[in-house]
Amino acid sequence: MTNKCKDCQRVIARESIRCRKCAKVGKLNPMFGKRHSAKTKKKMGVWQQGEKNHQWKGNKVGYLALHEWIRRRLGRPKECRHCGQLGRHRNGKWSIHWANVSGKYLRVAKDWIPLCTKCHRIFDRK
Q1: What Rg do the C-alpha atoms of the chain give, in angstroms?
Q2: pLDDT tens, residue by residue, 3-13
Q3: CA dist 43 to 46, 47, 51, Å?
Q4: Please, which of 1, 13, 75, 77 could form a disulfide with 114 given CB 3.0 to 4.6 Å?
């Protein structure tokens, strides 16, 4: 004889009443109906941000993660510093990028300038 899940009627192990999928949903889930207080949410958010995060790498950060950090820190660049082109969406991407001046890729906001795609390519070749 095979057992079926009470909720979805799938065939399950003999000892179980519900399948794994149905057991994790709704009132059977141990977190059902529980919410974090505003104080707890604030603590969790502060703990995970920046240097307090246990995975923080400082200046040993990877290329993509550093660019994400700069984008969050400095925002979306408005216009190119060299040619003055205004930023806009092109093929689903923003046309102005943050370019690293020194080539050392450090977490220093002054070390980044806004450049359009064309100027950024020229700048990186030099």
Answers
A1: 25
A2: 888 778 888 87
A3: 5, 6, 15
A4: 77
- What percent helix, strand, coil does the chain show, rounded to 5? 40, 15, 45
Least confident of 31-40, 69-78, 104-113, 117-126: 31-40
Print the domain residue range for 23: 1-46
pLDDT at 54: 81
Whether the CB-CB separation of 43 and 49 falls below 8 Å is answered with: no
Number of domains making up the chain? 2
Taking the C-alpha atoms of residue 16 and residue 23, their distance in angstroms, rounded to an integer, is 10
d(CA 64, CA 83): 25
Q: Which two tokens stand for residue 99?
A: 């370019």
Q: Are 70 and 33 found together in one domain?
A: no
Name the token pair of 57: 């790498």
Q: What is the pLDDT of residues 24-61, one digit of tens each?
A: 666 666 777 788 889 988 887 766 777 878 888 888 88
